[in-house]
Amino acid sequence: MNVFENMLSFADLQVAAQNVAPIFLRDTFLNFLFGLRLSGLIISLILIILVIVFRFKLLKLKIKKVQKVGLSGLEKGSLLYETKKKTIFKKIDDYISFENILYWKLALVEIDSYFNNVMTEIGFKGNDIQEKLCQIPKEYLSNIEDMEKTHQKVSDILNDNNYLLTREETEKLIDVYKQGIEELGKL
Predict the structure, then answer these.
(1) Structural domain that includes position 151
(2) What total number of domains does the chain contain?
(3) More exposed terminus of the chain, fewer Cβ within 10 Å: N or C?
(4) Which of 17, 40, 63 is the last residue of a domain?
(5) For residue range 108-152, what is the model confidence (pLDDT) as tens digits?
(6) Residues 76 and 118 in one domain
(7) Which helix H or strand E contains 69, and what residues bound it?
(8) How many CB atoms within 10 Å of residue 114?
(9) Is residue 1 domain-resident?
(10) In this structure, is residue 31 part of a structural domain?
């Protein structure tokens, strides 16, 4: 008996490979196409989700909450928005209610800073209130001379540590600022 009798020869292996190769290649190719289709589907779903998420974020950015004031509207983030204005005025009134010159000076600093920020928000440019006041037409602010004098007086008070400020004087100065803020709010 020959040991090599039941063994496959190289020619037999070659014939078998030729018969099996197309089936193997076809299955491999089909598996590749399925994987490609599946990965394309996953990538498409991810892109659709990202588009939806960014779309909602853009819509949130575009939405403006507006309160009508006369012919113009104010955004809720505006310094002239009624609730923001009331909050600042309440804080200033709280400072005035103390029996302490330092709190009264703090109220003056607060109203002066708020007025400066309001003018900046409206669009008047300048390094300080004095420069911004020079740009405001009289039609926008009827008490512009009073505002200039008041701002100068507040600056003098804040720079003089020995100035004896009274509550009545503080209230008068703040009233001039409030009147100016109210007028600017009507723009």
Answers:
(1) 66-185
(2) 2
(3) N
(4) 63
(5) 999 998 888 888 888 778 888 888 888 777 777 778 888 888 889
(6) yes
(7) strand 66-69
(8) 20
(9) no
(10) yes
Q: State both tokens at 181.
A: 């803020």
Q: How much of the chain exceeds pLDDT 90, in percent?
A: 8
Task: For residue 89, give the H/E element and its range.
Answer: helix 82-97
In contact, 141 and 115? CB cutoff 8 Å? no
CATH number, domain at 127? 1.20.120
Question: Phi-psi region for residue 86, left (φ > 0), alpha (ψ -120 to 50) or beta?
Answer: alpha
Is residue 121 within 8 Å of residue 79, measured between CB atoms?
Answer: yes
Exposure b/e, 71-109, CB count within 10 A at least 16 = b: eeebeeebbbbeeebeebbeebeebeeeeeeebbbbbbe
Mean pLDDT by 10 residues, the chain (187 residues): 61 67 67 78 91 82 48 56 83 89 90 86 81 79 84 89 88 89 77
